[in-house]
Amino acid sequence: MNETTPLLDRVKSPRDLKRLSREQLPQLSQEVRDEIVRVCSQGGLHLASSLGATDVIVALHYVLNSPRDRILFDVGHQAYAHKILTGRREQMPTIKKEGGLSGFTKVSESEHDAITVGHASTSLANALGMAMARDALGQDYHVAAVIGDGSLTGGMALAALNTIGDMNRKMLIVLNDNEMSISENVGAINKFMRGLQVQKWFQEGEGAGKKAVETISKPLANFMSRAKNSTRHFFDPASVNPFAAMGVRYVGPVDGHNVEELVWLIERLVDLDGPTILHVVTRKGKGLPYAEADPIYWHGPAKFDPDTGEFKPSSAYSWSAAFGDAVTELARQDPRTFVITPAMREGSGLVEYSRQHPNRYLDVGIAEEVAVTTAAGMALQGLRPIVAIYSSFLQRAYDQVLHDVAIEHLNVTFAIDRAGIVGADGATHNGVFDLSFLRSIPGLHIGLPKDAAELRGMLKWAQEHAGPYAIRYPRGNTEKVPDGTWPAIEWGRWERLKEGDDVVILAGGKALEYAQKAAWNLPNVGVVNARFVKPLDESLLREVAEKARAIITVEDNTVVGGFGSAVLEALNRMNLDVPVRVLGIPDEFQDHATVESVHARSGIDAAAIRTALAELGVDVPVGV
Question: Is the dihedral of CA 29, 31, 37, 40 positive or negative?
């Protein structure tokens, strides 16, 4: 037994957890946190949020019986303690690695994972569905959803909450609030009222008493009910809240790190009829001083020393930073520029922009639909908004792009980060569908810059011309360019990077790197920077098709309806018959692995392109 984790070593499943005494739970929570720090010190994992949720997770598993009882997490990256307590401790070093554990909860990974979740605000609708399925099938199990206060900003969560109050099914919602301190109303009177609220006899007594009085006088019963509510409002300000207005019982706020109190509360709350919200206040990075001091950085840190928190700062220049620098400079030049993000300030490289242009910056929270339609409203009134959004999150706002922006050809630019395969975050975050779903929208222009300079040129063009524009760029790094770099780029014009008319490779963005590596020593193979997917450069495409023996298209997007499909459609319109080999992400979800590994197994890296060239009859030197 490890001397540093004597309790955790005894817990191989939630059943083992119940053999511990309540007094041992605080020590267990600390041992779990120490384990999370050890695993996350290797870098690239979700640290601060997992530390903050540990006590809540220990309490839930102590009371409930997983997997029979369903425990949902929103978002799944706060569930590392859940993975550790459900038999996956030995596998934690493999998390987010190829063939290893997912960074989120995943149904196909464990029977204890109630939902597969990487995007926020989905837990409440899922929980409602499970509660209704339970009742419809006459089954008996508990449903508990842990939702962060950030996830609660999403419209889907709020809409689900409204329906939950209306359906009135028994379920527990744990609101994990890691933004607010415990306020003054967490005192003796509030503790007394909470203790009263969670007693089943009190809830049942309320209903029985009212029914008894109604047999004598219904007006008197209504009067007594109003008096009771008035008394509750007097003693318990927390009862006057939007959750109560939606028909959901509210308890809290309580200390989310007092695991013994959490156990006491959860034991009573899960047996109450109807939905209940338990509002817990937690601290991101709990138990790790340097993570508590800077939870934003320690949300997903690079490799660090777990004892000191020391880490080696990265000197790489990311695509997100390139976008942030460009748009910050653009805003100084054009007062109409306004940037909107759905809770992705740091991830989208907008920290400096938000400081320099606070009056032209809006973070709408995890509400992608709101971000897009707000941009439409701005555009209607003369601004030039830029929506900075991850590719996989833009999926949620497809209707708003189509209905609110594109129909009236509004001047909105979409800066689409994390386009293509993202690697360790896996299927929920891979941005491999945007070319396909955006290409179907009339009048929407789509560009794929090959470097930071082209990104700047495309942004400049989009801000100076009419209509909606989408500029997609990958997760990863690029070369920094000097401020003031604004290359003149004509939208819709491709460029030849390598001459050769036997077989020509058409690729843009990340895929262009592979195309150039594949063709560098093949004199008769041409490479075209196909940096615009809509519109295509049909003039250059015609020229290539009329001379080439074959064409290869390469894209970091699904092969279904993407760039290769666009090329085939254009050739069909032009009545040109030339063989086309379409390389892209296969029509299946890609699990987590390095970007390079997924590209290799998907058949779009340089080796796969050289294989395709050889199959087309090109003399490809072996081992070069």
Answer: negative
**Catalytic hit among 284, 286, 418, 450:** 284
Tens of pLDDT along 24-75?
Answer: 999 999 999 999 999 999 888 888 999 999 999 999 999 999 999 999 999 8
Residue 311, phi then psi, degrees to nearest 5: -145, 160
DSSP notation for 315-356: ---BHHHHHHHHHHHHHHH-TTEEEEESS-TTTTT-HHHHHH
Q: What is the pLDDT of residue 467?
A: 98
Catalytic residue, chosen from 368, 369, 513, 555, is 368
pLDDT computed for residue 187 by the predictor: 40
- Collapsed DSSP state (helix, strand, coil) of residue 224: helix
pLDDT over 60 at 362, yes or no: yes
Active-site residue, 218 included: no
**In whole angstroms, how far apart are CA 559 and each of 20, 35, 107, 515, 581?**
53, 41, 26, 17, 11
pLDDT band for position 624 (50/70/90)? low
- List helix spans (H) across 334-443: 351-356, 368-380, 391-394, 398-400, 434-439
Give the DSSP letter string of 234-251. Answer: HH-GGGSSHHHHTT-EEE
Distance, CA of 63 to CA of 343 (rounded, Å): 33
CA dist 196 to 203, 225, 279, Å?
9, 16, 16
Q: Can you state the angle between helices 188-197 and 218-235, rounded to 10 degrees?
A: 140
- Output the pLDDT for position 194: 45
What SS3 string covers 149-166? CCHHHCHHHHHHHHHHHH
C-alpha distances in angstroms, 475 versus 174, 248, 421, 472? 33, 40, 8, 10
Cα 9–chain centre separation: 32
pLDDT score of 218 more than 90? no
Cβ neighbours for 480, distance < 8 A, ≥ 6 positions apart:
317, 321, 322, 325, 452
Identify the helix (H) or strand (E) that includes residue 177.
strand 171-177
Q: Taking a C-beta distance cutoff of 8 angstroms, is the pair 619, 607 a contact?
A: no
Give the integer Cα–Cα distance in Å for 319 and 342: 18
Using CA atoms, how far apart are residues 470 and 389, in angstroms rounded to an integer? 11
155: pLDDT confidence band, cut at 50, 70 and 90? confident
Token pair for 165:
């109050």
Report the amino acid identity of residue 231: T
Q: Mean pLDDT throughout 379-407? A: 97
Q: Is 368 noted as a catalytic residue in this protein?
A: yes
Q: Whole-angstrom Cα distance, residue 59 to residue 407? A: 50
Beta bridge partners of 174: 146, 278
**Whole-angstrom Cα distance, residue 27 to residue 5?**
9
The Cα 275–Cα 511 span in angstroms is: 49
Global pTM exceeds 0.85: yes
Whether residue 396 lies in the annotated active site: yes
Question: CA-to-CA distance for 297 and 285, rounded, in angstroms?
Answer: 10
Q: Exactly one of 89, 96, 396, 610 is catalytic; name it.
A: 396
